[in-house]
Predict the structure.
Amino acid sequence: MSGSVNKEQLIKHLQGGEAFMALEDLIDKISFEKLGEKPQNLPYSFYELFYHIVFAQKDILEYSISENYKSSEWPDDYWPKESTPDTEEDWKKLKKDYFEDRERFKNFILDTDIDLNLPVKNSDNHSLLREIMLVIEHTAYHTGQMLIILRLLGLYK
């Protein structure tokens, strides 16, 4: 899986928009005031889902490439304590963090010296490709949930 065509395809899926909506196509369709609303019978707000995506992506990236990786506590660390960010600046920072980490992942994938079939830095049982696919699938799954929340809040048709 070290070929550039395969890596480019992974990048397309990492960015979304192939078989599912890209995060950048929906992330700004909700006002700050509505970020914490939980539609009836749903356990999460739009913010909580996005926070979870951001945290998981960063955690998987660090697990894959960092020599200094420290495990996070499941599920407590992966979900925010509150259903909404404290400030609009916190919300902007979370979005910025997501896109910066995704860019780091893209650059890592495209590095010609990286063989995606090799194990990650922190486990001989998981390949780099597995972790990349995990981020793609995880993000797609929760992006779909975020879209449903937008629809239930009347913010997307």
